[in-house]
Design goal:
Number of helices of chain B: 4
Strand content of chain A: 15-25%
Number of domains of chain B: 1
Distance between the termini of chain B: 54 Å
CATH architecture of chain B: Up-down Bundle
Structural class of chain A: alpha+beta
CATH superfamily of chain B: Fumarate reductase/succinate dehydrogenase, transmembrane subunit
Order of helices and strands of chain A: EEHEEHEEEHEEHHHHHH
CATH topology of chain B: 3 helical TM bundles of succinate and fumarate reductases
CATH architecture of the largest domain in chain A: Orthogonal Bundle
Strand content of chain B: under 5%
Helix content of chain B: over 70%
CATH class of chain B: Mainly Alpha
Structural class of chain B: mainly alpha
CATH topology of the largest domain in chain A: Fumarate Reductase Iron-sulfur Protein, Chain B, domain 2
Shape of chain A: globular
Radius of gyration of chain A: 21 Å
CATH class of the largest domain in chain A: Mainly Alpha
Number of strands of chain A: 9
Shape of chain B: globular
Helix content of chain A: 25-40%
CATH superfamily of the largest domain in chain A: Alpha-helical ferredoxin
Oligomer: heterodimer
Distance between the termini of chain A: 71 Å
Chain lengths: ~240, ~120
């Protein structure tokens, strides 16, 4: 028999027109396989149908259910409640994005910046020595790692203080265009990031890489951009 | 939501080593700027004659002041050594080992701090 228990969820609530946000508390029966997303869906189904949240794939490939659980950015669909091991689970929306309601934020500004990197979504995949590439296919391909969930932007302390900062997601995408152009112009990317609010604005907190659920490692990518730009500037200075 | 205000960057829940290094770096930097202002003001006492300066030196030898000196030394060491780490990582050198680099400079800093504290209280 699966272990079952009741866990208290403290959920951020806000609707347009409210004077201020508040938290509602719910007791939710969970077992060892229950995810935070499933618990929130149970709250919405059984206790409060006005709870607003966003979700889609339920398996960490779409990035839709990004939120903060106990202060930390996660994908709720793959966050196991029992493994959190806290008597109360606090659920809040992502930071650094305009709040729509409850656990839903407006991702528009995120995409406005992210798409300026012009990162193609298809990349070259790692070579699998035991497989052969099919006729007519130049190489193995797959989707880029980034699922555009916004967790890195929420976790970044610099985004909190500088609204013009390009942010870790866009900068990570910019580096991917440099690494693998796929018809895009890396020089345009370098010009875009080599600014006060571009890659130089990062203060190396590296929380972006800590919270990324998809192996993008934005911190590494930002430093890679800075490395290339530093080499260029030194070459220009000293020949 | 976008956090606002002078401490919008201070959001410690659920954060890891790199974030805490960033926070401490900011706080020690602000502390060192404040110390510099105080230090210049103290040095100004030199222009007010030997009595004024000697009074200050007596205060500076007191145990409480020596403790403050140790705190100052911590600030200098942390900001300096972590600053070297940030400079290298910030140029793309060792970015994936940033956490190990942090513990390495922290170890060096801790040893220097102990040495310095011992010197303050014994010399």
């Amino acid at each position: 028999m699966a272990e079952q228990k009741n866990v208290q969820f403290r959920v951020f609530r806000y609707k347009q027109g409210d004077q201020a946000p508040h938290y509602d508390t719910f007791n939710v029966p969970i077992n060892e396989r229950t995810t935070v997303l499933e618990a929130l869906q149970a709250i919405r189904r059984d206790q409060d149908s006005t709870l607003i949240l966003r979700h889609s794939c339920h398996h960490a490939s779409c990035g839709t259910c990004g939120m903060r659980v106990n202060g930390r950015e996660v994908l709720a669909c793959v966050t196991n409640v029992m493994e959190l091991d806290t008597p109360v689970v606090t659920v809040e929306p992502l930071e650094n994005a305009p709040l729509v309601a409850d656990l839903v934020v407006d991702m528009g500004p995120f995409y406005d910046t992210f798409t300026q990197a012009h990162m193609p979504l298809i990349r070259q995949s790692e070579f699998l020595p035991e497989s052969e590439v099919a006729e007519g296919v130049p190489y193995h391909m797959r989707f880029e790692n980034c699922i555009e969930c916004g967790l890195c932007v929420s976790a970044c302390p610099v985004v909190s203080t500088d609204p013009e900062y390009l942010g870790p997601a866009a900068l990570a995408a910019a580096w991917r265009v440099v690494e693998e152009p796929r018809g895009e112009d890396p020089e345009q990317v370098f010009a875009w990031v080599d600014t006060e609010h571009g890659c130089w604005r990062c203060h190396v907190a590296m929380e972006c890489s800590e919270v990324c659920p998809s192996n993008v490692n934005p911190g590494h990518n930002i430093m890679a951009l800075r490395h290339q730009l530093t080499k260029r500037k030194l070459s220009a200075l000293f020949g | 939501m976008r956090r606002r205000g002078l401490v919008a960057w201070l959001n410690p829940r659920g954060r890891r080593v790199g974030y805490w290094a960033f926070v401490l770096h900011r706080l020690t930097g602000l502390g060192l700027v404040l110390y510099l202002i105080i230090h210049l003001w103290v040095l100004n006492m030199l222009s007010q004659g030997p009595e004024r300066w000697n009074d200050f030196v007596e205060l500076a030898k007191s145990p409480l002041f020596l403790v403050l000196d140790v705190i100052l030394l911590f600030g200098i060491l942390f900001h300096g050594l972590n600053g070297i780490r940030v400079a290298f990582v910030g140029m793309g050198i060792g970015a994936d080992q940033h956490e190990r680099l942090f513990w390495a400079v922290s170890l060096i800093g801790a040893l220097l701090l102990l040495l310095g504290a011992w010197g303050f209280f014994t010399v």
